[in-house]
């Protein structure tokens, strides 16, 4: 995530929130670290006021902790939060998969399959940033194809808070390879519109990520 290119003005607030959120999710701004407001203002070409308004949005999402008279910090990732959130997200993703298989257009199914191909090529090249970008696109596409705004809204509320951990779950080469193998089954179920199988695979995929995180945490 690039935090050194000035932002365009027409949608300054939205772009700033998006840029900062992605920086937190991708680990550019590390958990527990103090947010360098002056540096960010200079790099992004914004004043303190819009930056702080954007930080308030991230604070409402649980990504940032605002400290009175002390600035702001990136919220830490706790195992307690992950253990509470991951099972819920797993159920939401499983439901989204089932609905997507029933409601997606042929073009949407083809796009999800194609994005999987992109993700697999990134894995073969050892390109983690491109892999994770494709991975996020795939999950977002499934929720979009599910045609359920309430489901999508609840997922959005939780996903940003654990997205950082989802990246950490694939930090080892072994777990990364396992995740890819799981996605090969997932894309097969998508292509076949097998909603029941896809739902179960997506739930298992998320639960395996949580198990990996718990193992790495000791």
Automatic annotation (TrEMBL):
The keyword S-adenosyl-L-methionine does not apply. Pfam families: FCD (PF07729), GntR (PF00392). It comes from Roseicyclus marinus. Keywords: DNA-binding, Transcription, Transcription regulation. One of its GO terms (molecular function) is DNA binding. This is Transcriptional regulator. Residues 10-77 form the HTH gntR-type domain.
